[in-house]
Fold this protein.
Amino acid sequence: MEEQAKDYSHINGWGIDADPKNDPTYPMKHRTNEEHKGYTWERPPQQPITMEVLHSIERPNVSAVFGTAMPPSGLSGMIRRFAFKYSENSYLHWLPLLVADRVNVVEGLIEDVAGGKVPNIFSEKGYSADWDHNRSGLAVRAAVGAAVVGAIVLMCAGEKNRKKWFYQLMDR
Amino acid sequence: MLAMNYRGPKRVRIDHKPIPEILHPEDAIVRVIRSCICGSDLHLYNGNVPDTRVGSTFGHEFVGIVEEIGEDVQKLKVGDKVIVPFNISCGRCAFCKQELYGNCHEANSQATAVGAIYGYSHTAGGYNGGQAEYVRVPYADVGPTVLPEGMDWDDAVMLTDVVPTGYQAAEMAGIQKGDTVVVFGAGPIGIMAAKCSWLFGAGRVIVIDKEEYRLEFARNYSQCEAYNFEEMDDPVVFIKKTTDWLGADVCIDAVGAEAAGNVLQTITGRKLLLQAGSATALHWAINSVKKGGIVSIVGVYGPTDNLVPIGNVLNKGLTIRANQASVKRLLPRLIDHVQKGIINPKLLITHRVPLEEVADAYRMFSEKLDNCIKPVLIPPSANM
């Protein structure tokens, strides 16, 4: 702090009214002004970097420890690598990450099917909770879903098929 | 081991995953005994947090038993029962040294603005979370606190996030004796913030939400007034009227990105993702507080940006205070409050669900089915 005061000695009155007790971060921050020394603390040992870890360009390094949940991979990984070329201040960081998340969902489905697993969407969406506690809501949702799917199928079927189905329905 | 597995927006399932390993000399592996679903997990569940990767395991509120420790861990030993704060902190960086344990600089490479949080996307460090049978806990000598004698697991798991975040919301609000405090949101955090506001000497505490069962819970648990904004023409005018037309001394946003109540905010923030969530509660907080008042934000928003009435913040001379809770800093005081019966956090738990039914638990919490306030997941290995 003394050094800083010297640095500002050319400014008349610098720090004259400083009052540490008038700190809007009190008591959330036990103020020691550690950060005034810059990025100089003794860092914890570095976790071995045995996989690809993307890091914000707003810092010079990978943090001493890091999560290893899902390293970037596939097309979504390529998009994430692109996103990390931009700072957290940029839409070019966050929007590609959201796109990558959606691409990753499709990759997840492909991975499931390729691994011989057909995802149970009803179960994954937790609809049995609706069955237990909100049966009418579930019925409405199912009816709306069926109507939308029916409409799409009808729109996709050619004029010829639509007429054929209509006449078959009338014959009954 | 069994672990929750995120598959895409509103799709999760239980899967088998490898048991985590020690990756750093200061790591521990913890066997999970209780794990909660947090309201902020719903931002991930709904696909609103950038860099939420398929295959991740969520869960930042958990307690358990130490199964294994790294070679440099000195304070914990195998078999210790631990409360694990939701934020991962090194204890050595400039921010940790100032007790900003939610803002550690040595645990999250992927976003400098965000501290590291278990199971909260790669934007929060890429760690797998506690909705599983086992979790890797970095910096095991810093964050985890040994469970005090006599404290049960249900109280303990609420001390990992809900109690500290609710308490810090009230603390940041700088409440003075006699102040009127308005809390937006009657979820677990809002209910706890209302409860804790009294501890700072609030003269009047008001909770605003739209779920009647939650409002009723808040009235009973937090001993406060609670009102349904769907029964008001305008919640801001309601607050003004009930505070003799001046506004509340303090407003707390305990909702965050999933807020209802404003069509424009809902469409742009929650449906189209053009904002980092719906900032309705924050609007109401800024506009309801008294001139020169304080707005405390603990509701979670995404990392991009939101439409907020910043002009009113200037014109009213407001102070805005916000942060992720510094759990480690607050734990000693809050453990004491729980042990003395001043706070009884486990009363907030409405559902205890086997981990295997995690998808149903998310659905129930997300859709507020069966009067759900706080679901807790119990892994099969919890009873070993």
